[in-house]
Amino acid sequence: MSKTTVAAPANIAFIKYWGARDLERALPMNSSISMTLDHCVTRCTVEILDGGHDEVWLSEPDGGFGSPEAEFTRRVVEQLDRVRQWAGREEPFRVATRNTFPSAAGLASSASGFAALTLAAAGALGRKDAPARELSQLSRRSGSGSAARSVLGGYVEWPDPGGIGKVGGIDDEPSYAIQLADASHWDLRDVIAVVEIGPKVVSSRDGHRLAHTSPYYTKRLELVPERLQKVRRAIETRDFDLLGPVLEEESTDLHMIAMTSQPPIFYWSPGTVAVLRAVRELRQEGLAAFATLDAGANVHVICDPDSEDEVAERLEDLPAVGFVIRDGVGDGPEHETTHLF
Ligand code: DP6
Fold first, then answer.
1. How sure is the predictor about 320, in pLDDT bands with cuts at 50, 70 and 90?
2. Is 338 domain-assigned?
3. Residue 337 lies in a domain
4. Taking Cα atoms as reference points, which of 15, 55, 8, 49 lies closest to residue 32?
5. CB of 16 closer than 6 A to ligand 1?
């Protein structure tokens, strides 16, 4: 049977998806904007089987493949069901997946993972060239909403389906991501300071579920529309001075909401604080670099190509930083001819 392999990148949110109007369908409370990365990718190979059941394999540190935890397998199989239903097919699949970066460390591994799985399964069913809109929508329905953004390259917006503050009665169809600009439009870099490896303590899903229990969440929703406008304009005009402060406000907001949710969620570690301080110092020295975190302790430092070396060297020197991943804006998912099995 023929195999389909897709490499899909992670993305880093400039405007964060935090809080859902419908968590099961991953319908967000607010629009989000992200930059698709280049090197942090999940590679997924899918093969249609003649019969039997879906088989799911996950790469292990030694390079081989093993059976993932039951919860992971369940989510993968549910997503395969959605792809089959969308394509009007019933065949079982064999699936193998491997990340090029630490899984579940707040580096959006589920976004790249579910985008890769969805695109590879769609490709295996002969639907490689389906409209991006449908593939984004299908990826979003995995439950990892940010996967909707990972099917596109460059700078991507995933619009809020229902208007800020409106809850319930939302049609499922309109919620998919669109590209604001391709990667060649603006060469930005993401220097990721890894201060913690290993699964995050609290999933983004729990964060979304609890967000509205924070007394600051309503205020956040009021602030998002203006930030969205600023980020869209900053991308359009390649204005880093406009983008940078909004990036940091968004990240601080997300973590403040998490820390004030009931029960509270603390994603930061001491290393996070050390990196945030170093980034402020770099700015005082005249470098344009701004920090943002997703739901984890690791820090993404967004900067222009001229600042990248200095940013990376300074972060590597911090005792709290285990290692640094140098990434940048990328073109989006690719179909590959080399397979994982
Ligand atoms: C903080 O529900 O998409 O990264 O399934 O863990 O990828 P995962 O999370 P998801 O929420 C993403 C939350 C975020 C912000 C963002 O990417 O917009």
1. very high
2. no
3. no
4. 15
5. yes
Query: Ligand 1 centroid to 178 CA: how many Å?
Result: 17
Each residue's pLDDT tens digit, 86-106: 999 999 999 999 998 766 555
Question: Taking a C-beta distance cutoff of 8 angstroms, is the pair 221, 212 a contact?
Answer: no
- Mean pLDDT confidence for 320-327: 95
Can you state the percent helix, strand and coil of the chain, rounding each to 5? Answer: 35, 25, 40
CA of 295 to the centre of ligand 1 (A): 7
Question: Per-residue pLDDT tens for 144-197?
Answer: 999 999 999 999 999 987 754 444 445 555 789 999 999 999 999 999 999 988
The verdict on the CB of residue 32 being under 6 Å from ligand 1 is yes
Q: Is the CB of 106 under 6 A from ligand 1?
A: no
**pTM tops 0.85:** yes
How would you list the strands of the sheet with 299-303, edge to edge?
Answer: 289-292, 299-303, 189-194, 323-328
| Residue-wise pLDDT tens digits, 219-249 | 999 999 999 999 999 999 999 999 999 999 9
What pLDDT score was predicted for residue 169? 46
For ligand 1, the distance from its centroid to the CA atom of residue 204, given in whole angstroms, is 6
Structural domain contains residue 340: no
What's the Cα-to-Cα distance from 269 to each of 105, 237, 266, rounded to whole Å?
Answer: 12, 35, 8
Residue 284 alpha carbon to ligand 1 centre in Å? 31
- Asked whether residue 191 falls in the same domain as residue 180, the answer is no
Q: Is 158 in the pocket of ligand 1 (CB under 6 A)?
A: no
* Number of folded domains that form the chain: 2
Q: Are residues 167 and 22 in the same domain?
A: yes
